[in-house]
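Dear support,

Our group has been running a series of protein-ligand predictions, and this particular one with NAP is the one our PI (initials K.S.) wants archived with full inputs and outputs. We had some confusion internally about which version of the output was final, so please treat the block below as the authoritative record. The input we submitted was:
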Amino acid sequence: MAKINFGGVEEDVVTREEFPLAKAREVLKDETIAILGYGVQGPGQALNLRDNGFRVIVGQRKNSKTWEKAVADGWVPGETLFELEEACQKGTILQYLLSDAGQIAFWPTVKKHLTKGKALYFSHGFGVTYKDQTGIVPPADVDVILVAPKGSGTSLRRLFLEGKGLNSSYAIFQNATGKAEERVIALGIGVGSGYLFKTDFKKEVFSDLTGERGILMGALAGVMEAQYNLLRSKGHSPSEAFNETVEELTESLIKLVGENGMDWMYANCSTTAQRGALDWKNRFRDAVKPVFDQLYESVSSGNEARITIEANSKADYREKLQKELDELKNSEMWKTGTKVRELRP
Ligand SMILES: NC(=O)c1ccc[n+]([C@@H]2O[C@H](COP(=O)([O-])OP(=O)(O)OC[C@H]3O[C@@H](n4cnc5c(N)ncnc54)[C@H](OP(=O)(O)O)[C@@H]3O)[C@@H](O)[C@H]2O)c1
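Confirmed final output from the archive:
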């Protein structure tokens, strides 16, 4: 564990240098890691663990497209690819990577196979934190741990193949064996994390739900729409409105922020842009504060969990989601985006 100073605040983090892959392999040398679910996180974590030299099997419902995807990725039925329940039997570490709604439905089966000393691993604190709504209450004699990569499973895999990694949080909810800490850190390194920072299950889910509903997805799409619609209503063309709202951000400015920080990006824009952005940043911050306060309240009260569970447990949830996604796709702004991308050199 290294103490690192983040903007004046000290935190304990784990880096790959202090907890190298060889150590992770040693810690997990007798374990069979069963990846339950092969959606988005499943493939990223399973393939990275496999390529890093761990003993990994995949559990997935048969006769599905997802099963075929697992076969296409090199998992062999009867050897490294099994029906979910068989994988639960065989695994000593069960990485519970079904969708959050799927985790509720399948919980009685997983619970049956959580025998003494096994570890139950999540990539989200959702199921355990909102136990009143999910019914997920692990037995007392297993470790309950979490590694949550801060990004999509697709990026986790892509960055791994480039020799890089996504940062992940990690947490221990229950340390039944006394080995939960080394197990969870070894898994965090094994799945290909950048650095690991410690959290708890509740903080992980509160920050994660706030982030995705907020700046990462909900707020981002919302403010983009507001600006695009404004420019269009004032007579600007789709090209002008889209380039000024999305394309310049994704193709230029946000990459600079990722590389060098917001301060550097500001400092390298025109002084006209700097003056205006510095003034308007605070107005936007203050304007959205009440919405963020409502959002956090809705997350911490369990209201967001209730909405999500209700919606995603319905038999036709995929079709319903698809309808809303299609509306987004077919809006003028995002259709303009498709054209703009086609025209990129
Ligand atoms: N998406 C991400 O990149 C990301 C990032 C960080 C953390 N996480 C967390 O990682 C976990 C997995 O997320 P994900 O996005 O990878 O999930 P996902 O893609 O939605 O997971 C789908 C998987 O769950 C299975 N499944 C769904 N309902 C089922 C049921 N009732 N019975 C059996 N299997 C069922 C699916 O099988 P079928 O294909 O057969 O339906 C598929 O294998 C979640 O806790 C999530 O919060 C995800």
